[in-house]
Amino acid sequence: MPPRSQRVPTRDGLSLHVLVWSDEGVPMVFLHGFSNEAHVWDDVAPVLAPYYRTLAFDMPGHGDSDRDPAFRYDHESMARDVASALDALAAPRVVMVGHSMGGRVAMRFAGLQPERLAGLVVVDAGPELDARGVLRIRLDAESGDRSFASPAEAELALRRAYPLAEPAAIARLVRHTLRKRTDGRLEAKLDPGFMEAARALDPAERAERERAETAALWAALAKVTCPALVVRGAASDVLSPETAERMAESALPRGSLAVIPRAGHSVMLDNPGAFRDALERFALGDA
Fold it and tell me: Are 55 and 27 in contact (CB under 8 A)?
C-alpha cells in the first residue's frame, strides 16, 4: 500500500513533507531519526493503517521537507514544527512514534503538549545517551565528503552503516535519502547546516547543552499520562538497558519496555518484523 505524499505548513513560510497511509482514525505520527526520512517506516506504517490515521514526517532539514535558514534544529524547535504541522492537519490528539532524534523530539512534544498524546512510543532514544553511540554517529556525520558516484557505491556505504538491514531497506534508503547534484554525484538530502551549530561549540559548551537537554527530557517524560512504550534494540550502543528501564519503569507512569532481538540502534531497519509486532501489540492493546 503506497503512501500519499503531501506538504504541510509549519511556520515562517516553511513546510514539512508528510507521507499518508490512511486518513481514518486517531492519527499515528512517525518521526524518524537523524539523517533518515519518512520512508524509513515503510515496513511498519502500513500494518497500522487499517486502525489509525497513519502519517510519517520528513523532519525539518531532512528528506523533502524545507531547510530552515535560521538552523532551528534543536529538539524543542522541531517539536514545535511538528505541533504546527499537526494543527494544519487537524490532528488534535495523536499517538506519536519517534526513533532516535525523532524520539527526543517526541519527548519534547510530550513536555510541551502532553494533553495531545493518546500514546507515546520512544524507539532507541532517551534523555541520557550511551557515549559510544553518540561518538559513532557524530564521527560519521562529520566524516568528510559524503557524496557517491553511483547508487551501487551508496548502497555499499549504507550496508556498512546498517549491517543488519535487508537489501530492500538499503535500496530504499538510497532512493529516498539521496539526491543528484549538478555534477551527477549523489549526496544526502540532509541540510548541511544541521551540524554547523554543533560544530561551532567547544566540548564544554556541547556537554553543558546535553546536560540541559537531559534534564528537560526527563522533565518532559514526567508529564506523560498516556500509555507509553520504550523500545530498545538488544544490541543498541545508543540507549543503555539502565536508561530504558528507568524510562519504562519509573519515569512513565503507564510505561512498558520492549527489547527487540537481533537489532541495534536502527530497530525498524534491523528487525522490522519484531518491531512491527511490538508496536502492533501496544497500539491495538493499549493506545
Answer: yes
